Amino acid sequence: MTISADSRIAVVTGASSGIGEAAARTLAAQGYHVVVGARRLDRLRALADEIGGTALELDVTDEDSVDAFTTVLPRVDVLVNNAGGAKGLATVLDAVEDDWRWMWETNVIGTLRVTKALLPKLIDSGDGLIVTITSVAAFEAYDNGSGYTTAKHAQAVLHRTLRGELLGKPVRLTEIAPGAVETEFSLIRFEGDQERADKVYEGITPLVAQDIAEIIGFVASRPSHVNLDQIIVKPRDQASAGRFNRTTG
Ligand code: NAP
User: Fold this and answer.
1) Which one, of 214, 64, 39, lies nearest residue 131 by Cα?
2) Is residue 3 part of a domain?
3) Element (H, E) at 15
4) Residue pair 82/133 in contact by the 8 Å Cβ criterion
5) If you placed Cys at 156, which of 30, 33, 138, 163 could pair as Cys (CB 3.0 to 4.6 Å)?
6) Which atom of ligand 1 approaches the CA of 136 most closely?
7) Residue at 21 is within a domain
8) How far is the CA of 86 from the centre of ligand 1 (A)?
């Protein structure tokens, strides 16, 4: 697989659905050659065909997979750290260690691995951008959510640390922290239980993936001296991680 270094390259992790998929479309429309990564290669291939990008299998929890993914990239101008998600809802007393491991491996170590591997190329681009999709769960704790809130806090602090460490280098860093976005997020969180997933968005008008993609597009199209550090975005019906205006019936 040879990817040309002629056009600016944007890498989107977790692009097989939701926010990542929408972000890939937006960045492609802005003229980037978009390299999309995730585990479900069939979905990625369809997306890459549509946007004229490149589909590459990627499991951010697997070091060899990240190595294989990152070494074939001839240059990287934009990295969207989007791969992630939640598993379950449980009190600390009932915490399921395997769910915690999944969330920490995917959101935290996954972001670390991909970012570490691509940082030299982002710096070499002369005008790099790293966008990390954290969450309102990176700013707040909520009952039964400690596995996810701790992982998103850790992912966010990793990202924010780079803002200082890269000062003087040509790389911008933007953290986008969404509230409720209707994607496959809740379906994954509840192990395929569609009814339970639907309840999360019942009676509210949630954000959709395209809302976040447009913000990513806005961030990527600012002039290179403008760094949007943090963007928290929630539906109008959501005041905090656990407080919603729900209409019933
Ligand atoms: P989604 O539709 O479930 O998408 C998650 C993406 O992550 C999928 O493309 C999935 O692809 C990928 N992924 C999961 N594990 C992976 C792994 N080990 N290696 C590579 N890719 C992996 O959910 P989404 O809402 O778009 O989530 C995107 C990001 O937004 C996540 O970081 C999530 O925490 C964050 N977020 C979501 C919400 C929300 O309400 N939806 C709110 C705040 C923040 P494969 O399964 O094909 O690998």
Assistant:
1) 214
2) no
3) none
4) yes
5) 138
6) 43
7) yes
8) 8
Ligand 1 contact via 184 beta carbon (within 6 Å): yes
Record the tokens describing residue 62, joined without a space: 């697997």
Instruction: Give the residue numbers spanning the domain of 23.
Output: 9-244
**pLDDT tens digits, residue range 75-106?**
999 999 999 999 999 999 999 999 999 999 99
* Dist. CA 223 → ligand 1 center (Å): 28
The string of pLDDT tens digits covering residues 33-77 is 999 999 999 999 999 999 999 999 999 999 999 999 999 999 999
Catalytic positions are 148
Contact 153, 101 (CB under 8 A): no
Domain count, the chain: 1
Report the distance separating Cα 129 and Cα 173, nearest Å.
6
pLDDT digits (tens, 9 = 90+) for 146-157: 999 999 999 999
Is the pTM above the cut of 0.85?
Answer: yes
Q: What's the rounded mean pLDDT across residues 177-192?
A: 98
Coil/strand/helix, residue 209:
helix
Q: Does residue 166 sit within a domain?
A: yes
Domain CATH for 226: 3.40.50.720
